[in-house]
Automatic annotation (TrEMBL):
Keyword Chaperone: no
InterPro entries: Aminotransferase_I/II_large, HTH_trans_reg/aminotransferase, PyrdxlP-dep_Trfase, PyrdxlP-dep_Trfase_major, Tscrpt_reg_HTH_GntR, WH-like_DNA-bd_sf, WH_DNA-bd_sf
HTH gntR-type domain location: 3-71
Highest taxon, organism lineage: Bacteria
Keyword Transcription regulation annotated: yes
PROSITE patterns found in the cross-reference section: HTH_GNTR
Protein's UniProt name: GntR family transcriptional regulator
SMART domains, sorted: HTH_GNTR
One GO MF term attached to the UniProt entry: pyridoxal phosphate binding
SUPFAM superfamilies to which the protein is assigned, alphabetical: PLP-dependent transferases (SSF53383), Winged helix' DNA-binding domain (SSF46785)
Family: In the C-terminal section; belongs to the class-I pyridoxal-phosphate-dependent aminotransferase family.
Keywords recorded for this protein, A-Z: DNA-binding, Pyridoxal phosphate, Transcription, Transcription regulation
Length: 444
């Protein structure tokens, strides 16, 4: 069967872009001009450009037109991390480590090697973890304002797996998942893999637009709401009590599940109560030890309401059965002896110091950030496209993330996300000053 006209034209333009016949940065004809040139309807021309945008080949800028994206590999949800020049700074991914964490690991491994239960580390743990290990995490979560029985805590191989198994258990392909218009990139990957329909909710400076969320839930069958209420990634907000209560009210009225991501919540020293505490009957809380301890320690957890425990446990069994016993022993040991709490305090101090450096280095630029987080959202000038800026910075040895990675809907803001947690503290200021000089030197 002959493909529809929009598909034929989109494929033709895509081939020209990929071969370089239409170069990066080129402005494409307006929708009306394309319709006239190709003798197609305006709606068909619009669909052509939508198809090219979905392929990651073009970007539309309101009031300026449609441009061919720089395909250097330094923008989008899965950018290349191989730079064309020696690396100056990786501002694309947070991997904070304390100076003594290697020594801590050696000590912990020596302790495990001499423990009486060392052979138990070679045995298979049950899905969701052993009851004693779950009890350790349940006790730790009291410090986050979550008071649940160990049976409601399921151990996972990191926060991403906690999200994965929870979504698989509680949704079906085609279900609508409400999510902030700018959010953690991993939720897009999971939604695509599981066939979920992402419904972006407009964001404000203080959090998601709750009126828009309410309208969405009244007009569409929203199955679940994914949200990051405490130290949002990438915008850094901490929802106040009133907004948390409002979000819970919307979810209850629509009978939605709430999936609360607490990955960066430890960075807020005195947060409002988590959504799980406000709506325990419908909230699944997911987090882990990647940002507060180490990214290589793939240990996470899902706090699940009674009615969903069996379904999420089955999903976890199908995905990976259980967390490796050695990882569980390390994680629960560090929770029990106070190492995690100590590292979280150190992380808060480190993140606040890095934000102070960023405020000084980027003063006067369009910056949005939590005062004690590892993330900066940097707005660009009207003439600067994120993909082009990322490519220019890559030539300077600086890796960044573009707004494309965080956008859950068609609107891609003109912005970059800077991750402050990986560069050495004593080199962060010079890296940010170099970034600033490079960005400001990009001409219209």
């Amino acid at each position: 069967m002959r493909p529809p006209s929009y598909r034929r034209i989109a494929d033709e333009l895509a081939a020209a872009i990929r071969t370089g016949a239409i170069p990066a940065g080129a402005r494409l004809p307006t929708h009306r001009d394309l319709a006239r040139e190709r003798r197609i309807a305006l709606a068909t021309a619009t669909r052509v450009y939508a198809e090219l945008a979905a392929m990651g080949l073009v970007t539309g800028e309101p009031g300026r037109g449609t441009f061919v994206r720089h395909r250097s590999g330094y923008d989008g949800p899965e950018p290349s991390r191989a730079l064309p020049v020696p690396r100056v700074a990786d501002l694309s991914f947070n991997q904070p480590l304390a100076p003594d964490q290697g020594d801590r690991l050696r000590t912990a491994l020596r302790t495990l090697s001499t423990s009486g239960e060392v052979e138990s580390l070679l045995r298979q743990h049950p899905p969701g973890g052993r009851s004693g290990d779950r009890a350790v995490v349940a006790a730790y979560l009291i410090g986050r304002g979550i008071d649940v029985a160990p049976a409601n805590v399921l151990l996972t191989g990191g926060t991403q797996q906690a999200l994965d198994v929870t979504l698989r258990a509680l949704t079906r392909p085609g279900d609508v998942l409400a999510v902030d218009a700018l959010s953690y990139p991993g939720i897009r990957l999971l939604a695509a893999a599981q066939g979920l329909d992402l419904a972006p909710v407009p964001v404000t400076a203080a959090g998601p637009d709750l009126a828009a969320l309410d309208r969405l839930c009244r007009t569409r069958p929203v199955r679940a709401i994914y949200t990051i209420p405490t130290v949002h990634n990438p915008l850094g907000w901490v929802l106040d009590r009133e907004r948390r209560a409002g979000l819970v009210a919307v979810a209850r009225a629509a009978d939605c599940v709430i999936i609360e991501d607490g990955t960066y919540a430890f960075l807020e020293a005195a947060p409002p109560p988590p959504l799980q505490a406000l709506a325990p009957e419908r909230t699944c809380y997911v987090a882990g030890l990647s940002k507060n301890v180490a990214t290589g320690l793939r240990f996470g957890f899902a706090v699940v309401p009674d009615r969903h425990v069996q379904a999420v446990t089955r999903s976890l069994r199908a995905a990976a059965w259980s967390v490796p016993a050695l990882v569980t022993a390390l994680a629960t040991g560090w929770i029990t002896d106070g190492t995690v709490e100590e590292l979280e305090r150190a992380r808060r101090e480190d993140a606040a110091a890095r934000q102070g450096i960023a405020r000084d280095a980027l003063a006067g630029m369009d910056v949005v950030a939590h005062p004690a987080s590892y993330i900066v959202w940097l707005g660009l000038e009207p003439h600067q496209r994120p993909d082009h800026v990322a490519a220019v910075l890559a030539e300077e040895g600086i890796l960044v993330s573009t707004s494309d990675a965080f956008a859950t809907g068609p609107h891609r803001p003109r912005a970059l996300r800077l991750a402050l947690g990986t560069p050495p503290l004593d080199g962060l200021a010079s890296a940010l000053h170099r970034l600033r000089r490079t960005v400001e030197a990009i001409p219209p």
